[in-house]
Amino acid sequence: MQKKKWTPEAIKAHIIARNESEPLNSHYYAKKYPSIYAAAERIFGSWGNAIEASGIDYISVRKYHVWTRQRILLIIREKFEAGEPLSSQYAQTYYKALYMACVHRFKSWGAAIEAAGLDYSKIRLRRKMTEEQIRDEIIQLYRSGEDLAYPNVRRKRQYLLAYGMKKLGGGSWARARQVCGITDNYRIPPHKRKKGA
Questions:
Q1: Residue range 87-145, pLDDT digits in tens
Q2: Can you tell me the distance from the alpha carbon of 133 to that of 73, in angstroms, rounded to the nearest whole number?
Q3: pLDDT tens for residues 8-44?
Q4: Which of 149, 153, 158 lies closest to 182 in space, CA to CA?
C-alpha cells in the first residue's frame, strides 16, 4: 500500500479539521499521527511552525505546562459567563485540550469546575433523556411562557438545548422547537410574537 504524500495544504487541513476536537500538542500528534507529525517537521521545520501556519496560536495548544491552574479557572469562568455548556460530555467533545488539562491539574473535570467557584451539580447534563421526555419538557416550558429563544435556553437550560438539538433537531434548536409544534419566530421581540402552538 502506497504511503500518503503529505503536502503543506494537506497537513494544514488535517490540523484545522481536528482543532477543538483533539489535542494539537506535539506529544499527542507524534503518538497518534506519526506520519503527519514527521511530514510537518520536515516541511515546516517544526511542529509549532505547522500549527502557526494553520492559523492557530501554538502557545494555546502546547502540552500541560502552559495550562496553569489559574489559566484553566479563568477560561472555565469565561465560558460559563458566555453561556457555553460545561458538562463533562460536552467538554470532552468540544474543549478537548482544556478537558485534558483539567484532568491533569485537578484530577477531574468536575473538580476544576468546582475550583472555579461553580456548582457542578447544576451544570452536569442530565444522564438520559428520551425524545418523548425532551419534547414534553420543551412543550411544558413553552406553555408556561418560557422564552425558548436559543440564547435564553443556552443560558438557563444547557442540557435541554444539547439534547433537543441532537435528538430532535438534527443540530438545529429551531428545528427541535418545530418538531414540538412550536412555530413562534424567536428572532423578533417577544411582545410581537404570535403564538403558533
A1: 887 787 778 778 888 988 898 999 999 999 998 877 765 556 788 988 998 999 899 88
A2: 34
A3: 999 999 999 888 777 788 878 888 889 999 999 999 9
A4: 149
Question: What does the pLDDT read at residue 152?
Answer: 83
Average pLDDT of the residues in 139-157:
85
Answer whether 118's CB lies under 8 Å from 76's CB: yes
Question: Exposed, middle or buried by CB within 10 Å (0-12, 13-18, 19+), for 101?
Answer: buried
Question: In degrees to the nearest 10, what's the CA dihedral of 58, 62, 68, 73?
Answer: 70
Q: 3-class DSSP state for residue 19? A: coil
Q: Which among 91, 107, 87 is positioned nearest to 99, based on CA atoms?
A: 91
Which positions ≥6 away from 81 have C-beta within 8 Å?
none
| Closest by Cα among 56, 16, 55 to 36 | 16
* Whole-number Cα distances in Å, 180 to 87, 130, 190: 25, 14, 19
CA distance 158 to 88: 12
